[in-house]
Amino acid sequence: MAAVKATPKAEVTIKKDWCKGCGICVHYCPKGVLAMSENLKAEVKNPEECTGCGNCEIYCPDFAVSLRRIQ
Q: What range does the domain containing 31 cover?
């Protein structure tokens, strides 16, 4: 039986030039969608796991993260 791929509930976008690399969005993501890159900026690593909770967008102090819900 083939594995069923999860469908994301939202699309996360990170404005790299606004991100200061604090890691708050990564910390508050309950599904591990976000991670810190090698250059210490937030990046989307597992988009298929996104539940659309909005924590990343809410807690980002620099408004670098935006969320577009998919339904």
A: 10-69
